[in-house]
Write a structure and sequence with these properties.
Blueprint lengths: L7 H5 L18 H5 L21 E2 L6 E5 L14 H23 L11 E6 L2 E3 L9 E8 L5 E10 L2 E13 L1 H7 L4
Antiparallel strand pairs: 1-2, 2-5, 3-7, 4-7, 5-6, 6-7
């Protein structure tokens, strides 16, 4: 089996489009950098120096949102295998960005325009298909299943090279972050 090593150039080829093959993202910025450059989430926050800082991009097929991630040895589960919790974290954050990007597209808006669109995880489903090896770039490919609505279903595939290792089937709920923060600490 030949495993392709993915580079930043490969990742950069996943350009944002508005569904009409016209670039929305001429600077080749990730969704996270366009919408939340000050984000602090462990998985996707650009400002979280201890986090994963994943970067998600529209695929050239204008249907999927894609990302790559090369887990380091801190994320070992069994010897030479990726910890399953990391895989679920990647699915969670990447799928959330897939939902948000599709909300922008559904409203015919440029990614990152105001008012900002935010979603949170309603349910997170992960099915582990095969062991995921360390030392291989993981490719995540996610899309909306059904309609874009307040609670949107996202399907996500995780590949180690060209081997499917996990599937995500989750629901992401559009929220008002200000309201969410106010209600988070109430009894």
């Amino acid at each position: 089996m030949i495993i392709k090593k993915y580079t930043d150039v490969d990742i950069a080829q996943h350009r944002l489009t508005n569904g009409k093959n016209t670039p929305m993202n001429t600077n080749n910025l990730a969704l996270q950098d366009l919408v939340a450059p000050d984000g602090v989430c462990f998985g996707c926050g650009s400002k979280n120096t201890n986090g994963l800082r994943i970067k998600s991009y529209w695929d050239t097929d204008n249907l999927h949102v894609v990302m790559t991630h090369l887990p380091d040895d801190r994320y070992v589960g069994w010897p030479s295998l990726v910890y399953g919790g990391l895989i679920s974290c990647l699915i969670d954050c990447h799928s959330n960005w897939t939902a948000m990007a599709n909300h922008y597209r559904n409203e015919d808006r440029e990614i990152g325009t105001l008012p900002r669109i935010d979603c949170v995880t309603g349910t997170l489903g992960v099915k582990y298909i095969k062991p995921t090896p360390l030392g291989v770039p993981l490719i995540l490919k996610a899309r909306i299943e059904g309609e874009v609505k307040r609670a949107t279903r996202v399907l996500c595939e995780v590949y180690a090279g060209d081997i499917l290792t996990a599937l995500g089937d989750s629901i992401f709920v559009r929220v008002n972050v200000g309201h969410l923060a106010k209600t988070a600490h109430k009894d």
